[in-house]
Amino acid sequence: MMAWLERLHAARAHPTAAARPVATGVSTPKPGGQRHAPAQPSRNDRTPAQQPSLPAWDTVHSIADLPTIRTIYTAEKAEFALSAALRAVLIAIGSDCGEAWLLVDAASFARHAIHLDSLRTRLHNARIPVVKTVFASRALIAEIYKTEHPDANEAGKIPEEGQLFEALIRYGLEHQATDIHCIVKGQRAVVKYRIDAEMERMRGPTDGVYTREQIRGALGYAYNTLVAEKTNSHAQFTPDQFQSCMIPYRLDDKVLNLRWQSSRGFCRQGSAFTVFIRYLYGEQTLPIEKFQDLGYSDDQAELFSRIGVNRKGLVLICGITNSGKSTTLSFYVETLPGRERLNIITVEDPAEREIEAAALQISLQRTLALDAERTPFSEIQGVLVRSDPDVIMQGEIRDVASGVCAQTLLQTGHQVLATTHAMGVMEAFARLSSSEIGFSMQTLTARKFWSLLVYQALVPKLCPACCEPADQTLPNITAFIRQRFHIDTSAMRTRCMGGCGACGGRGVRGVTVVAEMMQPTRSFLMLMREGRDFEAEAAWRSASDSRFDSPHMRGKTVFEHALYKAGCGLIDPRTVETFELFDQFEIIREVA
Q: What is the CATH number of domain 291-591?
């Protein structure tokens, strides 16, 4: 049976050869008894048994069966270009990791095996590992070749859309941006960046204004060709969908990830959408050696050190979007005492950066349409418990599934590190007990539930080269601050509008953390369990030294930390009022 199949395959691959008599290598006697020497078969006259047999390779039937295609090594103008005849039956594609897959038409394998081996050798010599060879139909191979932009493989050249995307990314890198916002309304698009915690329009000849098609083309190029494998919520970029992905990107000597989130919007002039891209650097670009380098006070940094020794309960970092929560949590993991002797596992949605101290990083991808009964967190929590962890960094708690996962891990005695969106440490209780996440107040006030509760925000630091004395620029405000908070305002400074050359005309340079921290006590938890929230807050804040010019932040709110930094001339006093207004802040000692 197998010989018959091989004969049929050879006949399909070489129909003309199959029609000819096949030399067997055994002479046939002629009349008169005369014998001739055995005929030597030509290459095309071999028997099916002598033809190369098909290897036991997988067969792919669609592009969906392949890794994300970053490049086509064998395209017409590529480094490993093939002739038109060979491109009909053979293709080499490149994935995110710089690895190659080879696809060959099964019916043409016997005829072109030598070309396949040659291509594999050329790739190997160029240090491009071939990780898999599979069979594919001619139609699929042709379809893949069609996805290649005509200019994409010319030496050093990328398509116009790709050049625009690179220009957008480069601008952000040069100006140390943390985010890009591409806002499209109707036929007009505006590009903005978050620099030093503030949004500003892209500067330059276009003033950040492009046509809809320009930005759509650049974004489509990035989403469709650069996305990391298994991180994209959809196969192709579609402006009217909520989409997410991670894009690994290299620009000059910079290696980073770009976290993508796009949303459709409303516009009277036509359809609208916005794409938000976060810069995630693969290696730490700031000289951070201790928590004080982020902006935490000495006693706040000491708290992080103490809980790193105990390693029990929940460490929760709260804050709004773009407040540096993940950076703080990652730094905590990287600086854990005795981390070499710990099994640290992270579960992130998705993983944003490599954490050297983690033994295992699990990257999840949730979608808006995911079945609530089968979320990544519900499927992974059993695996985590059986992985013998010491510390688990879970990432964001934002729904019932992630909340249940955190609770399960805490109940099994592990320290769990997580983030959530909340406006303060007191507000974290309301957030976690909401129907969206579903913790009971009984659980949140359990004796060993908490290890540390933190709220942090990022605020812009004043440019030291051009900042101005606040007593001169804001005399009424500084007078009120002196009267109400009893602090010296002579060192206070304000932002110079228009800035200087040192700050690029912004008046600010860099960001710093302002924070409030709490280790819930038994008395605090009892008050919270009884629903006496205001009394619980007063109990927490009673640990403060009640001085607004003191560097000690125990029992103090984020407002007080910001006010202290304003008093030192690090931030503008008007930034303090983004947390609470000066005349509305409740001073606990006045109501005690």
A: 3.40.50.300
